[in-house]
Write a structure and sequence with these properties.
Blueprint (H helix, E strand, L loop, with lengths): L1 H20 L4 E2 L2 E2 H15 L9 H13 L3 H17 L6 H10 L17
């Protein structure tokens, strides 16, 4: 029952953020500002700024992206937004850690955060 409540809260938050994100830069079907807000906690982790400490904000971001990026177009958009965000930050990403991140969060995520990932595959 507690798990259902958490999922419902995440869905409500995702819908609210999507409504606000309509005015932000678009990358296909999703607003990049929204993707950055949702996955932002993961960026600093992968840049080594938090000394590898995984926190609930990053995992919540992954779960939220799974809810809002349902279509192939949305997943590609989210991937391209994340790729652009880490390239704008001009810092290196630990790609091995990035590949393992979704499993550490206990979710199946369609892409990993990378400066060089091909989002079209």
């Amino acid at each position: 029952m507690k798990g259902v409540a958490v999922v419902l809260v995440l869905v409500v938050l995702a819908v609210a953020q999507l409504a606000m994100a309509a005015r932000l830069e678009q990358q296909g079907g999703l607003a990049c500002g929204h993707v950055d807000d949702v996955l932002g906690p993961c960026y600093s982790l992968l840049e080594g700024l938090r000394r590898g400490r995984l926190d609930s904000a990053c995992c919540t971001g992954f779960r939220t992206m799974i809810v809002i990026a349902q279509s192939t177009e949305d997943r590609r958009s989210a991937c391209n937004c994340a790729k652009a965000a880490v390239n704008r930050r001009n810092s290196s990403i630990n790609e091995d850690q990035s590949r393992a991140l979704s499993s550490k969060c206990g979710v199946s995520f369609p892409f990993y955060i990378s400066r060089t990932i091909n989002c079209d595959t």
